[in-house]
Amino acid sequence: MLVLGVSMLSLARFQFAMTTIFHFFFVPFSIGMALLTAIMETIYVFKRDDDYKKMAKFWGKIFLLSFAVGVVTGIIQEFQFGMNWSDYSRFMGDIFGAPLAIEALLAFFLESVFIGMWMFTWDRFKPGIHALFIWLVTLGSSISALWILTANSFMQNPVAYRIANGRAEMASFSGLLKNPQLWVEFPHVIFGAFTTAAFALAGMSAWRLLKHENKTFYHKSLRVGLWVGLVAAILTVAVGDLQTQQVIKDQPMKFAATEGIYKDSGNPASWSVVQGFDTKNKKVTWSIEVPRMLSLLTYHKATGSVKGMDTINKELHAKYDGKYGSAINYYVPPKTLFWSFRIMAGSGMFFILIAVLGLWFSRAKKNTLQNQRWLLYVLGISLWLPFIANTCGWLITELGRFPWIVYGLYTIADAVSPSVTAGDLWFSNIMYFLIFTLLGGTMIYFAHRTLVAGPDALDGTGYADTTVDPLSKGAFSHE
Amino acid sequence: MSSLQLLWFFLIGLLFSVFFFLEGFDYGVGMALRLIAHNEQERGELMQSIGPHWDGNEVWLITAGGAMFASFPYWYASLFSGFYIILFLTLFALILRGVSFEFRAHALSPAGKKLWGWALSIGSLCAPFLLGMMFTDLVKGMPLDAGGNIRGGFGDYVNLFSIVGGVAVALLCLLHGLNFIRLKLTGELRQRAQALTKILYPVLFVGLVAFAGLLLWQTDFFSKRPLSSWLLLILIVLLSVVATYGAYRDKEGLSFIASGATLIGVVALLFNGLFPRVMVGNDPLHSILIANASSTEYTLGVMTIVAAILVPIVLAYTIWSYFVFNQRVDTKKVVSDK
Ligand code: HEM
């Protein structure tokens, strides 16, 4: 049904994109911030340097803000499969529901209960025990990523299933977990999450250093951020390479689109750094190429040709036309994928570079970071980059699977709820948009204000410094 | 119907029961902000009483939803898409109240504190009201088509019965929250909470009678499963009597347990009446049954093992966390008494 020229399907897809992208601004940031806070508190436990305790408390506040927004936008995710994609839920429930339920049982409870413990018991437990709470939160949020990506990996690369009774049925639970896609996707996302928070934290510290505030405090914070960021970025990039191999094998169309090749490449294949597209006539208009590079990226060898989208399209038609008819379009949006990939992978390299530079100039022996104002600016601006890289990554992963919602098994067009109307979707889309704007704006505003107020501010949050137990009788009996 | 299917129907009911028992008092405290607190300081105190727990409590709802998806995908699909607008508004309410704790703590101006306090209260009122409406509609029966999709109009969702159901659930949560406040706070707030329960319990009894009447008239509970339905109904009333008794006799622990058990009783009543269906169709032929809404035996088996291992662990540390925040009472007292 078309209302105002927009189909139900487009509205539902728009909603999914909007809610997940928004949710995924906060998820990786929270996961990584939990880790960074845990590391800072652990350094405090071992070194008894009070600066690190202050750091854990201070950055913990920003973590909590992000966590709150992550939680409330996460509930939407849990509900929207049923609400907007009920036919998908019917088809996939036997496989998809289990990881979701396990995620809640294994991860959400752990996170939420121990966040409460961590927030309110700074003065109640020995430092070592208290630090354990934030580690449990980190563990919980990482496990949560594992299970949701188990579900997502099945959609990318279905395994251990059988089709029976008009639906996909789980043939083996351990098979679901052994999905090779999962074991590249999960590390890529989780290291990406660590990268995200690390560079966001380093960036925030850099802005304060530019203002010459609390130099030791932000200097130490920056270095923790850059060390974690360096390791995490290298791992993200390394796993990204493995993931590329997986994509080449399982979803060649996605890969061809991220490299923007319509016609099969020559042998050896050269790699376009940038190029122009004529998507209508399916042609590359201009390009800047590096010889042999694509063979290297694809096969880790100096030779070998790569299949183009035109060939893959024909192959897919030959494979699926019997079942889905010949009218289906197998091309995925090449421009979006091509540029998203370059932004994502480019940021990965860039992160490694600025981490090395930052660590070098701020080294203990000869710290001249404060004089390298250009680098502080670069670090400061880069605080937004990981969020863009994450979004680009998901655009590739999800758009590149078109026209499937479950690769090779179920199309997006079949998945949408039959009983939901375009009016419902317009209403919820607009409302989501408004509330997300409010949430995002408020969160950034508060985070910024916390940052400006600095670690020594006596603030209204009362969490970090709470000495009054909220639940003790008598805690509030003011004369 | 296999025994695993039966087990999972029971477990879904159990998850919703725990959810209403725990998050019920959160909602009540949120509503109480408008009723018994006189200034921002007092509102802050009320919010702190649930500060460490509300998030964990809400996870029970997420778990119930996830478990329904895993064990009865046809139920999940039909219910969640069928009650689209109600669930969307519920989500909206949960979003508002979920961020209110953190945002209110960060707001420095009185106006900001006020705003997020209101967000909590409105969210806390709307969420149980809307969920109450949905569950009432669910047992009343909806126009289901042969594919299991609800094809309803406004009146199918919003009607006298569902409004009474929504109000009843919201009121039960409010009372549960007031009993929690009596248990956790001291001084004036506690006294005001107690005074308010004394006023509200009579109102609740009127509400319960209305709800029971509508249940008799609008559902097939008493023709299909008369004995258990009557027993549960009587139990619900008795529990409310016990809670009222606790309100008059300064027995807040008793009131709290009783008001929580009342909420569980309501869930039990609804699930008992629903059985052996999961969705009641206006046309009985289109009702969705436990027997044909579930996942495969294999998946149910996996989920059973997972739940058997994880639920006790979750319960253990959740209970421990409540225990931690209770212990302080004594230690502090001991310290200050010295
Ligand atoms: C040279 C560096 C990188 C390479 C080669 C790379 C490779 C890939 C590939 C091939 C995918 C698509 C996987 C699929 O569709 O199954 C992907 C997705 C993704 N990437 Fe990257 N990536 C790199 C850097 C980064 C960085 C720095 C971040 C974030 C900080 C990031 C975040 C993501 C995310 C969130 C996804 C979506 C989830 C997924 O499928 O894993 N990537 N990446």
Short description:
The complex is a heterodimer of chains A (479) and B (338). Chain A is 68% helix and 7% strand.
Descriptors:
heterodimer; A: 479 residues; mainly alpha; 2 domains; two-stranded antiparallel sheet; 15 helices; globular; disordered C terminus; B: 338 residues; two-stranded antiparallel ribbon; 1% strand; binds protoporphyrin IX containing FE
SS element count, helices of chain B: 14
Adjacency order of strands in the biggest sheet of chain A: 1-2
Instruction: Briefly note the structural class of the backbone of chain B.
Output: mainly alpha
Unreliable stretches of chain B, pLDDT < 50, 5 or more residues? 327-338
Describe the structure.
Chain A is mainly α and 479 residues long. Chain A has two domains: 371 residues; 78 residues, no CATH class. Chain A contains 15 helices and eight strands. In chain A, helix 1 crosses helix 6 and helix 6 runs antiparallel to helix 7. Chain A is globular and about 70 Å long. The termini of chain A are far apart. Chain B is mainly α and 338 residues long. In chain B, 83% of the residues lie in helices and 1% in strands. Chain B has 14 helices and two strands; from the N terminus they run H-H-H-H-H-H-H-H-H-H-H-H-E-E-H-H. Chain B has a two-stranded antiparallel ribbon with strand order 1-2. Chain B is globular and about 55 Å long. The interface between A and B is large, with 80 and 81 residues. Chain B: It holds the Pfam family Cyt_bd_oxida_II. Chain B: It is a multi-pass membrane protein. Chain B: InterPro entries: Cyt-d_oxidase_su2 (IPR003317). Chain B: It comes from Loigolactobacillus binensis.
